[in-house]
Fold this sequence. Notes:
Number of helices: 8
Number of strands: 9
Strand order of the largest sheet: 3-2-1-4-5-9-8
Helix content: 25-40%
Bound molecules: S-adenosylmethionine
CATH class: Alpha Beta
Largest sheet: 7 strands, mixed
CATH topology: Rossmann fold
CATH architecture: 3-Layer(aba) Sandwich
Strand content: 25-35%
Shape: globular
Amino acid sequence: MAETRARQLYGGSDITQTHVLCPALCDVAEKVRPDNVMDFGCGVGYLTGLLAQISPRVKGVDKSATSIHLARNLNTNIEFSIGDFEDISHLQEQFELVTCNLVLNNVINLHRAVSAMHAILRSRGRFLFSIPHPSGWPRVCGYEDAAWFDWSKETFVTGPFKIASEPTITFEGWHAHRPLNMYIESVVKSGFLVEDVFEPMPTSAIAELFSYRWSFPRYIIVQCRKLT
Length: 228
Ligand SMILES: C[S@@+](CC[C@H](N)C(=O)[O-])C[C@H]1O[C@@H](n2cnc3c(N)ncnc32)[C@H](O)[C@@H]1O
């Protein structure tokens, strides 16, 4: 899976990531101009590489050894390590910006993950994360009207993952559906202020690259600031 994801990201066929999500995350990073960045749950390091064009010191961590191996080969100038947010004691450094691109929807314990990101941030540092839109994603995945689905409850959903331009290549996976207020409660309880919330959409030129119409937001980006 990691090899295919690397090809889709670095080859530009995952238009959602390359033309919608990553540009929106990098726009925020460019405004923050951080001294150092941790891209947590970096996968094969595509966003990490873009962040390295904005900040002089960028690191990436992921629990998948295969993804980290590919990330290192594809970005020889960036330090990557294998790690789990459940154990971040190996990270001595504190960061001015921590990013989690489509990671919190892949963790079992949301609050522990958010607290771990809080712990590796400097005082007044920023935490920037993206998640599939809790309102739009059930529609995208086709379970919005399923009898078992209750949008107000945390639910672990298994099912195939695919990108729009390569619909025949699917990976079995899972994601957590959570109502937005669970994310907001978790960041506030961890000691963050929510500074901004974006619902990124493709520009009209980019929208034409998709085989379907983006009639509603599919992702949310939340920008938080560590209070102390
Ligand atoms: C959907 S992928 C996103 C990868 C990358 N951020 C991107 O946008 O291409 C989610 C990533 O989170 C990582 N991940 C999930 N749980 C993790 C954990 N507990 N600690 C570290 N990484 C984790 C997975 O290995 C996977 O690479």
